[in-house]
Design goal:
The complex is a heterodimer of chains A (366) and B (612).
Chain A (H helix, E strand, L loop, with lengths): L3 H9 L2 H11 L14 H34 L16 H29 L8 E8 L2 E6 L4 E4 L1 E5 L3 E8 L4 E4 L7 E3 L5 E6 L4 E7 L11 E7 L1 H12 L32 H12 L32 E2 L4 E2 L2 H9 L1 H4 L13 H12 L3
Parallel strand pairs in A: 1-5, 4-10
Antiparallel strand pairs in A: 1-2, 2-3, 5-8, 6-7, 6-9, 9-10, 11-12
Helix pairs in contact in A: 3-4, 6-9, 7-9
Chain B lengths: L19 H5 L4 H29 L10 H35 L8 H20 L27 H29 L12 H32 L13 H35 L6 H14 L15 H29 L8 H22 L3 H7 L3 H31 L5 H27 L16 H30 L38 H9 L22 H14 L11 H20 L4
Helix pairs in contact in B: 2-3, 2-4, 2-14, 3-4, 3-5, 3-7, 3-12, 4-5, 4-16, 5-6, 5-16, 6-7, 6-8, 7-9, 7-10, 7-12, 8-9, 9-10, 10-12, 10-13, 12-13, 13-14, 16-17
Classes of the chains: A alpha+beta (366), B mainly alpha (612).
């Protein structure tokens, strides 16, 4: 028998479906959501997801509804007579084999279509970007534009970017949910991904394949901006890039000396920055970081991120901290306390004055 | 059973009735079942504690309740423990105790091999957990993706404990699988044709086949990994021409059938409980058998759906998408037949039925989210996010654990001669049901809103904190439900031996003998003319059967207790565990040789020991 509490309970079972509706509505509050696509790749995926979700909700409501109905309808007592002994029904077996098969076909057809749309590199007028995963940060290279940067990918809005992705060490997975699904990266192999940003703004990304101690703090940003802003960013980033003139700054580009592979004071030196560059060279920073104006300026395969233009980035430590002088000082004083297990090792403890000099030096590289 | 060779055997050997030695040397499938159950339940509680620590860590953003390394060890060991030391051996408890009873046998086909399986399992479980004491718990994930597991990126003993521990546990699983396979094929009571076997025995039988086919693959993969780590090979190392993707294929060719190894026994239990508490036979018995077999068969053709984000190309993606979708069809058939079983029944609202229906209701959710990520492009957003964590907990907790708990309430009276309390049982159910859903349903939201898996923390600003906090409270509720369960068992253990032979009007052979059964199970094996032989007898009798009287067991020869299985198990531990020391000292192989000597001597003595 169906009681009023039974009806209530039955309604309560629809709660997940209601939650789902609410969820699809309020996804905007989640900066890393998959449910509010802002790129064409993510939109293809989202369309497919919504198809499957509505089928799933329908099946859920029907099957759980029948299950609950059966439980309340056929509740028995210990002394009731034995119910009719049914053993099965061929008609029903055939029906509940075929009907789900049709529903699955309704999901399978758009699935296969979308697979073929999303599997390969994009072609045509695209911005080429190489993505290289590192424990635990992301390197982005623009081979055609001569830019090498870390943890912040700039893309022009409305233009397809073509990602060619690999890793420096272990497996990682590149994931910017509002632009595209994730794709794993493997050593010695390139994997494709592409997307076209539909709007400008800053979008969250993260590593999605477990990659060791600091997998959680391997985040990054994708900054979508107008073509003009993007071009301006590129021309700033080209200065001292390892991909341009071997990291040497040509006289035409700036007032800096032509050959910057040897240590040289920055263009507008104050004493703090001058102390900073000396420390950068002497305390071992250059062992892992490529940096304009140092002997490593032109080297690509370094363990740590390229720090040329580090001052222009909005975050440090793979998207973990805002790029402020205080945070940079905290990081340089004791990297392991900020990000336990980080591969950034200081050869010795730096004094507060040394940290201040390095902060000033690094932040001067806009 | 064949008895001609036993004519000259001495009087029946009862297992030494009490004392720790009687448990160490026992070859009685029922006692080994209880050993499996007790051990697995303890490991299950440890795995649950590991989960609780993770939930506390994730309660707020940028939390530092545990260190990153500790968190990585916690989720690795939580997965490894729950799968290999919790759910699989809990299923093995039921295989051990109930397969012989359900098919009318006096024991399994190889009683000493059965004891050996248990001891190897225990030693393997202790071995892998011993790593905690050395602060070297495995921390590269239960999936151990190459090349993170290489010496370069995982230099400590952590991954060695994992590789070698799984290898030891694999020996136990293989031995047990061969044993149950042979038992089911050869020791069925007269009249019990394959298509009259109880559904739990059927699903267990399919599970053994899966074990036999899937475990060799992980064994090989682990040998490769061990060679890479200790003997200089490059199976998975790109710098030596190896390929980390190979590990993923091997791992999931094992790993996906493993999912069915975890769920099919629970399917079987639910297929026992629903008919008994509906008082009508399982709807579509034949369809249930063949859908189970079909799921198992297809289970070997879907492994790469764990790898859609690896970029396999459109043809492989399409193939594995379609095969994965196909598997939803026989799974649906099972669910519909369960509902068909309930339909028109006279439902006896006892605790086992609550858990069985809860299993069906929760498994539907896990199945539907499974269909959602069978679509590779959609899966690119879902894989490695909390959406997947939600999915497989609905399958493995909502499915396996609810099913196994239904089995625990259903069979506890048979195993211990005592009834579990119904009121406490229902409290257990509702706390677990609510706690489970509060813990795991919001994970769907978090995953779709971009929270990746296996992260020890998350930053403020992504708005993950609210649902994480809700989940933590849910997991605490789950912990409380486990305490209620333990209290219920403790209360029953202290209470009177009040269980009749057949408290539920059961349909299968185990309900025809006293609770708990005598050592030889059946004095005379009853006739079997259908898949519900106990109901047949009850009908022929025109009402409830008389409480069976204890039998003398005169002239029934039971296998002799033996300690050689334990000795041999230590040999296995020595041989495999010795690899741990290759980097520690150059004479490590002396341990291997000692282990091998113990192993060979144990097998030798075992082989020439009189069985009766």
């Amino acid at each position: 028998m169906v009681t009023s509490t039974g009806t209530l309970r039955r309604l309560a079972r629809f709660a997940p479906a209601v939650c789902l509706l609410v969820l699809l509505g309020c996804a905007e509050n989640y900066p890393q959501t998959t449910l509010a696509p802002r790129g064409d790749f993510a939109r293809l995926v989202d369309d497919l997801f919504r198809t499957t979700v509505w089928w799933a909700v329908l099946v859920f409501v029907l099957v759980e509804g029948v299950l609950l109905f059966a439980i309340f309808k056929f509740k028995g007592r210990p002394d009731d007579p034995e119910p009719r002994q049914t053993h099965g029904s061929t008609v029903l077996e055939v029906a509940w084999t075929i009907i789900p098969a049709f529903i699955l076909a309704a999901i399978a057809v758009p699935t296969v279509k979308t697979i073929f749309k999303t599997s390969d590199y994009a072609t045509g007028d695209v911005v080429q970007i190489e993505v290289i995963g590192h424990q635990w940060w992301w390197e982005f290279r623009y081979p055609d534009l001569g830019v090498v940067t870390a943890n912040e990918m700039h893309v022009p809005v409305g233009k397809t970017v073509n990602l060619r992705m690999t890793t420096f060490d272990v497996l990682h997975s590149f994931w910017v949910p509002q632009f595209a699904g994730k794709r794993d990266v493997f050593p010695g192999r390139y994997n494709p991904l592409w997307f076209k940003a539909e709007v400008t703004g800053t979008f969250s990304g993260t590593c999605a394949e477990f990659c060791g101690t600091q997998h959680a703090r391997m985040m990054f940003k994708v900054i979508s901006e107008s073509q003009e802003e993007f071009d301006a960013w590129v021309s700033r980033q080209r200065v001292g890039s390892p991909l341009v003139n071997g990291g040497r700054i040509a006289p035409a580009d700036s007032a800096a000396p032509a050959d910057t592979t040897r240590p040289a004071p920055p263009a507008a030196p104050d004493s703090l920055e001058r102390a900073g560059i000396a420390l950068f060279n002497s305390t071992g920073c250059i062992g892992c970081h490529s940096m304009v104006g140092t002997p490593t300026a032109g080297i690509l395969k370094m363990t740590g991120p390229n720090l040329t233009h580090v001052g222009s980035r909005s975050t440090i430590v793979a998207g973990f901290l805002a790029n402020t002088p205080e945070n940079l000082a905290k990081w340089l004083s004791n990297p392991d306390s900020v990000k336990q297990g980080t591969l950034m090792k200081l050869p010795r403890k730096l004094t507060d004055a040394e940290v201040a000099a390095l902060v000033a030096y690094l932040r001067s590289h806009q | 059973m064949a008895t001609s060779v036993l004519d000259k055997a001495p009087a029946a050997h009862a297992t030494a009735p009490t004392g720790i030695w009687s448990w160490i040397t026992t070859v009685d499938h029922k006692r080994i079942g209880i050993l499996y159950g007790a051990t697995a339940f303890l490991f299950f509680l440890i795995g649950g504690l590991e989960a609780l620590f993770m939930r506390i860590q994730l309660m707020k953003p940028d939390n530092d309740f545990v260190s990153p390394e500790m968190f990585n060890a916690l989720f690795t060991m939580h997965g490894t423990t729950m799968i290999f030391l919790g759910v699989m051996p809990l299923s093995a408890m039921f295989f051990n105790y109930f397969i012989p009873l359900q098919i009318g046998a006096r024991d399994v086909a190889f009683p000493r091999l059965n004891a050996f399986s248990y001891w190897v399992f225990l030693l393997g479980g202790l071995f892998i957990n011993f790593s905690w004491l050395l602060n070297a718990a495995p921390n590269a994930g239960w999936f151990g993706y190459a090349n993170l597991t290489s010496n370069q990126y995982s230099p400590g003993l952590n991954t060695d404990f994992w590789v070698l521990g799984l290898q030891i546990l694999g020996v136990a699983s293989m031995a047990a699988a061969i044993n149950f396979f042979v038992t089911i094929v050869n020791l069925r009571a007269p009249g019990m044709r394959m298509l009259r076997m109880p559904m739990f025995t059927w699903m267990s039988f399919i599970t053994q086949i899966l074990l036999l086919l899937a475990f060799p693959v992980i064994t090989i993969a682990l040998v490769f990994l061990m060679m890479d780590r200790h003997f200089g090979t490059h199976f998975f190392l790109p710098e030596g021409g190896g390929d980390p993707v190979l590990w993923q294929h091997l791992f999931w060719i094992f790993g996906h059938p493993e999912v069915y190894i975890l769920i099919l026994p629970a399917f079987g239990i639910v297929s026992e409980v629903l008919p008994v508490f509906s008082r009508k036979p399982l709807f579509g018995y034949t369809a249930m058998v063949f859908s189970g077999a079909f799921i198992a068969f297809l289970g070997f053709g879907v492994w790469s759906h764990h790898m859609f984000a690896t970029g396999m190309g459109p043809f492989a993606d399409s193939f594995f998408a379609l095969s994965t979708m196909l598997i939803a069809v026989p799974t649906g058939v099972k669910i519909f037949n369960w509902i068909g079983t309930l339909w028109g029944g006279s439902l006896q609202m006892k605790t086992p039925l609550y858990f069985a229906v809860g299993m069906v209701a929760m498994f539907i959710i896990g199945g539907l989210s499974g269909v959602m990520h069978s679509s590779p492009p959609a899966d690119l957003q879902q894989t490695d996010s909390y959406f997947v964590v939600a999915h497989f907990h609905y399958v493995l907790f909502g499915g396996s654990i609810f099913g196994l708990t239904a089995g625990a309430y259903y069979w506890f009276p048979k195993m211990f001669g005592r009834m579990l309390n119904e009121t406490i049982g229902k409290w257990h159910f509702w706390l677990m049901f609510i706690g489970f859903n509060v813990t795991f349903f919001p994970m769907h939201f978090l995953g779709l809103n971009g929270m990746p898996r296996r992260v020890y923390t998350y930053p403020e600003g992504l708005n993950f904190e609210f649902w994480n906090q809700v989940q933590t409270w849910g997991s605490i509720l789950l912990g409380v439900s486990m305490l209620v369960f333990i209290y219920n068992m403790w209360k029953a253990a202290r209470g009177p031996a009040n269980a009749p032979a057949d408290p539920w009007r059961g349909a299968t052979l185990e309900w025809l003998i006293p609770s708990p059964p005598q050592e030889f199970n059946f004095g005379t094996v009853p006739p079997v003319g259908s898949s519900t032989p106990a109901w047949d007898l009850r009908r022929a009798n025109g009402g409830p059967l008389q409480e069976p009287a204890p039998e003398s067991g005169e002239g029934i020869h039971m296998p002799r207790p033996s300690y050689w299985p334990v000795v041999t198990a230590f040999g296995v531990l020595g041989v495999i565990g010795s690899i741990l020391f290759t980097h520690a000292f150059p004479q490590w192989y002396l341990i291997t040789i000692t282990g091998a000597a113990i192993l060979i001597y144990g097998i030798y003595r075992w082989a020439f020991e009189p069985a009766f």
